[in-house]
Input
Amino acid sequence: MPNIEDVGKRIKRLRERQGLTQEELARKAGVRQSAVNNYEAGIRTPKDIIKIRLADALGETVENIFFTESVHERCNHTT
Output
């Protein structure tokens, strides 16, 4: 399972790929901009219902954002 910082980077990368600001993503997911900032910075982990809303707003699955390790992350854990 990816660590909280990796998840935050994924959220930010997906948000930027869609051309969304933190405020726009927050509005789509029903949270405050400061919450999105905290998720992206790896300060906080969203509750399960917010994970679903974020994934929906980003056009991704919850699994791909919050539970799947990338090949790069897996390689770093095995060395």
User: Anything to note?
Assistant: The first helix runs from residue 4 to 17.
